[in-house]
Amino acid sequence: MSDDFNMSMRKFLKQVGVTSQQAIEEGLRNAGDIAGKEFTAKVVLTVEGLDVEHVVTGTIKGQN
């Protein structure tokens, strides 16, 4: 793959990671007492113009 492709891919994935973490942290802060609770997270990635749908699920554990 080309350098331009790799750079655009890395930039996009970094933006996804950083903004997703910020959104999760804000949600956890606003949730109140979350100690000992677990939250199921799901990300659905689609790419317009390509036949791509990628789903990632996981668990986020709350703490004080």
From TrEMBL:
InterPro entries: DUF6494. This is Uncharacterized protein.
